[in-house]
Amino acid sequence: MTAQLQTSILPSEKPRKDIKLIESTYKSNTLSDYTEKIEHLYKNFKYSNNSNHYWNEPELSMLYGTPLYESASASQKLALNHVHWFGMYNVVAASETETIAYNQITSGVFSACGYETLARELALETHQERSHINAFHKIGYMTMKDLLGKEAFKAPLKGKLHQLTSQDVVQSPTSLRLLKSLFLKCENSSLASSQYNFLRFAAKKMLKQNQQYYSQYLKELDENNKFIPVSTTGLIGRGISPKSLQRFFAFNWGSSPFLASQYYSVRIMANMVLKNTEHGISKYFKSLAKKGEVIPDPTAVSHYHFLDESFHSTTSLVLARDLYKNFSPPTAYEKYIANLAIYMMQCGILSGISATAPDRYYADDYSLMYFVYRLLQSPVFEMSTQDALYWMEKCFCQEHEGFQMAAKYHQRLRLDMCRFYENLDYLWPVNREMRVMATGGSVDKAVQNNIKLFQDFSKLVTSENL
């Protein structure tokens, strides 16, 4: 990579520690070659050359610690290890697609503030994210095609079961449910365009004192009558939904220096979720290298992605923790928007543990049951409907080692979250102490939720196969 390195701070300011760290991060990121290594690996990837090796430690396998995993053959355990890699990076790819849009939105605000080097760092990250996404999509597609065959692309069950999320089946706070319901009703009607314009107007009205900072990226969308691109499958899309509510936050993040910097208090949540898993894969890479053993291409991609993302995490850290202090104190409205986003993310992506993957923290496993059902009917296991449901009940509805592993990952992540968020003085206690997340680490609660949800799932599957 080549880029002109240039220090750019506000003219009236002396160099600050946070500015220096941004400069240092941009320089190091520019001179690194991790993205190029990822590109080389994914462009030459063949599943057959990597299929006989674990891509990460066995505990990072789909269904690890369940009765089914204990009875699986060696080849099936390898497949479950690879499926976990696919599932994890499928979400990461969607999350990085979100990052591309939000980087461009906030970059416009920072440019208007005079932080040109920061804007260039975000542009560099955006370039890197595109390469990451291509790598995850190609490796994931080829893996699932070779492993699962036509089952990987089979049409969903009637009723769009696979699209249901925990927000559909688990009680959220009443005020939050009403808020989402209001946004969703307008979003799914002929009023969608009017709603979009109203939300843009409302954000501008509440932040009218910051008109000079309105993001150039948003201006260009306005001029071309285009909606802000949003996702329903990335971590922010899963945490902040429906789409219209995401766009409302995007308007705010693109209209205020304080809120632009505080978008990164949301982004760092995704950074930390990924690091909680990927750090272990990077250590696995180093262990294989030290022993002179074969390093599978996906393992190497994870390792270099971890190194690339360390720069992105540093950016999130500096912007979320320090940069906001350079601006005028936040208004009551700005504090509310910042807190609501983090609260919704807690509810949406951190409020539970999973029976099937230790690094999945959604409120329940309902949306994953469809995928596991298809996996058990694929060439990997070749189960009948009856056998698949039998084993799924054992995996989802009975306590086992996998749940304990998930609780350990959840607790470790929560401690990391608390250490970071306790330093943000504008946060509500429920966010500073990650209280919603704290309620989601119970194995017994997860099992009881799954028992109820599996009954509904089983009935739907059975009716489809009559």
Oligomeric description of these chains: single chain
Overall geometric form? globular
Largest sheet: none
- Terminus-to-terminus distance: 58 Å
Helix/strand-derived category reads: mainly alpha
Regions with little confidence, pLDDT below 50 for 5+ residues:
1-15, 158-171
- Rg (C-alpha, Å): 22 Å
The percent of residues in helical segments reads: 55-70%
How would you characterize this protein structure?
67% of the residues lie in helices and 0% in strands. The protein is built from 20 helices and no strands. The model is unreliable at 1-15 and 158-171 (pLDDT under 50). Helix 1 (17-31) packs antiparallel against helix 13 (297-321) and helix 16 (385-397) runs antiparallel to helix 20 (443-464). The protein has one domain. It has helices at residues 17-31, 34-43, 67-71, 74-113, 116-148, 166-169, 174-187, 192-206, 216-223, 235-239, 243-253, 257-291, 297-321, 332-349, 366-377, 385-397, 401-421, 429-432, 435-438, 443-464.
Brief summary of the model shown:
The chain is an all-alpha fold.
Jot down its keywords.
67% helix, mainly alpha, 466 residues, 20 helices, globular
